[in-house]
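Re: [help] complex structure
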Amino acid sequence: MRYVDEFRDADTAQAVAAQIAALCEPDRHYTFMEVCGGHTHTIYKHGLEDYLPEAVTLVHGPGCPVCVIPMGRVDDAIAIAEQPDVILTSFGDMLRVPGGRGSFLDAKAAGADIRMVYSPLDALKIARNNPDKRVVFMAIGFETTAPSTAMTVLRAAAEGIDNFSIFCNHVTIIPAIKAILDSPDLRLDGFLGPGHVSTVIGCRPYEFIARDHGKPLVTAGFEPLDILASVLMLMRQIAEGRADVENQYARVVPWHGNRRALEVIGEVMELRPYFEWRGLGFISQSALQVREAYASYDAERIFELPGVRVADPKACQCGEVLKGVLKPWECKVFGTACTPETPIGTCMVSSEGACAAYYNFGRFNRSHVREITLTEVGRS
Amino acid sequence: MTVEPAATSEVHRQHDREQEVLDRIERIRRRPARVREERITLAHGAGGKATHTLIEAVFLEAFRNPALEPLDDGAVLDLLGGRLAVTTDAFVVSPLFFPGGCIGDLAVNGTVNDLAMTGARPVALSASFVLEEGFPVEELQRVAAAMAASAQAAGVQIVTGDTKVVQRGKGDGCYITTSGVGVVDRPVRLSASAAQPGDVVLVSGPIGDHGVTVMLARGDLDLDADISSDTAPLHELAGRLLDAVPETRLLRDATRGGVATILNEVATASAVAVVVDEAAVPVQPVVTGACELLGIDPLYVACEGRLVAVVPGSDVDAGLAALQSLPVGAGAAVIGRIADDPAGLVLLKTGFGGSRIVDMLVGDPLPRIC
Amino acid sequence: MCLGIPGEVVEMPAEGDLARVDVAGVRRLVNIGLLEGQPLTTGDWVLIHVGFALSKIDEEEARAAMDFLEGIGQAYDDEIKALMESNIG
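Output below.
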């Protein structure tokens, strides 16, 4: 596959890894946060950590939009799904997230009409094909996904589809990064910037990180070589005593973002005064809601929601994992009470959650295994 | 070329603490299965963890007997001075007709293949139908014709059956259950617990064709591609392999849950590590593309005409040649090997050269695939 | 969720926002409305996310990224070669 395969070449990876290692000063440790859940997933899926020297650690951040949805909002969505004639549509990842009374999958088994979709346009199609039903789309995601949701609402309006609405849980990335920077628990040397969010917002919003906090940020692509190249760019900045915003993913990310995408978000949505993030608490100006002008597409206005704030289970340490303070295996319930089949928290459910990634892909003694996988497979 | 900075004792302590956590998790994973849900969910039908838990905690608990315990594709009974293989399978695929075949082909080939995986020569099938009121007879005739053709190609007869009808809305068109019997004339003892360090893992062709075909045929996704189901009878292929390599440890056909599920079953049952080379696993580019778009790993996607075999390391060339001697095995490849450590895990050397594990499937990415 | 994959535009719409895009032989209709105002034609590559094209892939930048990586690769190969040569004799 073009623009994919060439960024997965193992030989080039060796070379980049050697350069990274060569830039490591003795007795110094480097900690970089990769903000985006997609990066977490790629790192584990391709076994990228095998290429990083011991002195470099990648810490997973809060950029997993499923992971930050509080339990109460899941309950609200289920309450909508349980209304008569409602079809709730959702991305696959949300289906197993536990709310206070179970997950979407549990609600579906108990009779609610909940369907998996791959695009908000699929949800609109369901609305078009089922005029006697009220179709609600569980809208989640950062600025990457918000424009697609907004475009779908505009399309619904243009076609006069009146049985379609969204339950808006879109969140924005900058407040999450600010929460990390303001957290006293963490010492970070730099950031791998969220590649696809940046496609929409561009690279300029990150300038305060370099300017005010003195940390370099490299907007990174999602193939394993993109990530390694970005780590190398961070190491070079540190070696040169610089703190700048750089764009490794320039083939996809325009420096100034996607003007049209930002326009459609602004047309349909506006910032909420505050929003609760699972594990991070209430953050002001960090999430989107539907504007008054599009009220007839806003599930929060159409349906009566319990709106109850559900406290996370005491055992759950998702917040600390999301902030990068704890590694997944350091969570007290990781792999024991909390597993992908029996998740307590969201980090274990989403394909981009750090705990799911580590449990499903990384749960082994890495140095031991490196010897095993390096031996040639097959005829010996 | 690599400059390794001196690892600090802090890093060592971290590794030790991590290892303690990993050990604790392994002990918990070995505990007896328990179903925690109150209701059946789609995950229970996916062929992954939930399915295995359900089978062990409900069915094995209730029915327990030596023939059932290994939970292989079919049971082999010592009977009438010989060995009889028995198996059963239900087919609930949606849609009923798709490129490369229909529910009828799956119903015959699926059961023929389960018998073949025990080392048996398939002899006869039963077929029971649950039909929904309103289901078109013309479609039923097409299904029956497909079953007849597949049965003939597989050298079996459908010798008995049953039909039930349920009211409109109580059954999705047509469900088929086939049971099969076969004779195990060879002295083979195939089992997921027979793998040994030094053995090699083979697959008979490109993976994931069936699952992706059915997903696209559903029409919900606005995806279209030139891909068809790989449904095919594998008894001849299995026979050739067992002739060439009588010491074959096990055969499994890769249906729901895909190749990854089989490898995990082997790793657990034999208490070995299965080390897979991702670059060696045959996948058609269009399957890779569809899986990337859908966010699914081809290792978990169902096939309906592919087998996974574990053979002794010394027999790998003979085994591969045997598989490649028939068109249905033309794309056969060596995909991995068995090691003794870390026991119970499936390790993947990624195309990128890094390592990760491949766990049992959780949830259900592709419902009603077969 | 950040799942974005590159695809090639194989058919532009006569009207409306849906273009046919090819990903490794799989074809799907993708909404190109977010690229309004940018020139787009068959043969162009776009980044697809949840059924929408978010960005047009810049071939020059892709080339530059590969050059950066290949440059490192070449330097590495040169060093290995030099090392091996220095060990001979």
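The two ends of chain B are 51 Å apart (CA to CA).
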